[in-house]
Amino acid sequence: MPEKIRSYTGNSRGSRGIVVTDLDGTLLQTQRKVSTADLNTLELLKTRKIKRVIATGRSLFSARKVLHVGFPIDYLVFSSGAGVIEWPTKRLLNKHALGRKEVKTTVDALMDLCMDFMIHRPIPLNHHFVYYSTGRQNPDFFKRCEIYSNFAVREDFSAYRFSEACQVLAVAPFEKGRRAFSHLTNILHNLKVIRTTSPIDGRSIWIEVFPKEVSKASAVEWIGMREGISPEQVLAVGNDYNDLDLLNWAHSGFLVENAPEELKKQFETVSSNNDSGFTEAVEKWMGGIVN
């Protein structure tokens, strides 16, 4: 049963702050590794009584592919904020799901736009999905279906029985995705529509639809209330559009150098993910060298 937390409880757990980082393209290097400097920084933060959080768009299943059991963090926010895990115990603390009608509303909107999309099962099995294809050229979409072929089922949706889902994910080439995101944000105003750059080809746009209350920021705020830590005590580091809510919410926000140029105009920039930008952000936040 997910914990219910209503307000900040005071710093009763003795934590001095939260450092939260995105995973792909921020903490993870291009080779899907974490640098020694960044690992040392995560270990140091523990000694300073600062909670360490990874906030990723990956599902729990996918995150476990790159984070070993003893990875030095306290919380994992996964599926863009739809779920929260207490990492040392692997206990699921919080989760959200789209209702049946919300899923159908989203699918109808995507069908109208002739979009390729996937409907993911509720947490914790949200690496399983059914998908719809228009049959048009969309290499990134089909590559993701191939990667998850053991968990993916194609549907024609002529007689599909809608049910709860963690999220609906549409994949489109850049220009079509950019236009579709703008349109869907306007018509699905009772839901959360999140844009992110494909981690597969680095160009296509993924459009994720969640319940209205889901975001990386709201998940980290929930952790803050659990720990008695306010946004003024939070550092966030990210690299893409799906980090914007988190970077705007946190008191201190940094982008790594490999972020899109239009985003780097909005936040202070540190070194790239391949050059331990996470550690540089922590050093700036703490006011000194940490390694």
Explained architecture:
The protein is an alpha/beta fold and 291 residues long. The protein has two domains: 152 residues, Rossmann fold (3-Layer(aba) Sandwich); 112 residues, Hypothetical Protein, Haloacid Dehalogenase-like Hydrolase, Chain: A, domain 2 (2-Layer Sandwich), CATH 3.30.1240.10. 29% of the residues lie in helices and 24% in strands. It is built from nine helices and 14 strands. Strands 5-4-3-2-1-12-13-14 form an eight-stranded mixed beta sheet, with helices on both faces. It has a six-stranded mixed beta sheet with strand order 8-7-6-9-11-10, sandwiched between helices. A hairpin with a 4-residue loop joins β3 and β4. The longest helix is centred in the middle third of the chain and has 14 residues. 47% of the residues are buried. About 2% of the residues have low confidence.
